[in-house]
Write a structure and sequence with these properties.
It is a single chain. By secondary structure, the chain is an all-alpha fold. The protein has one domain. Helices cover about 80% and strands about 0% of the residues. The protein contains 3 helices and no strands. It has helices at about 5-30, 35-45, 50-85. The longest helix is centred in the C-terminal third of the chain and has 34 residues, at about 50-85. The chain is elongated and about 55 Å long.
Length: about 90
């Protein structure tokens, strides 16, 4: 079975962007500042605990998730081909 790079990238991108967005909004609404904002600031350069920051986190989370998904699918397909000495079916 061949993993489709773009499909996995889109799935992880939507998931990553949604998580960053929802946690940012929850942190903003509930008044959380410390650990959540510190974590996001390390993961997303330029992140701020604002509503615009939540949208920024959504976009950056999508991009990071997409790139990660493409890399994971590419590695999976390469390792599958190497380990099983067969061409991965399309």
């Amino acid at each position: 079975m061949r993993l489709r790079s773009r499909a996995l990238g889109l799935a992880l991108g939507v998931f990553g962007g949604s998580v960053l967005f929802l946690l940012s909004i929850a942190s903003r609404v509930l008044g959380g500042k410390g650990e959540v904002v510190g974590f996001f600031a390390n993961v997303v350069p330029g992140y701020r605990n604002t509503y615009i920051g939540a949208v920024y986190g959504l976009v950056c989370g999508f991009i990071e998730g997409f790139v990660l998904g493409v890399i994971i699918a590419w590695l999976y397909n390469r390792f599958h081909k190497m380990l099983y000495k067969t061409e991965v079916s399309h």
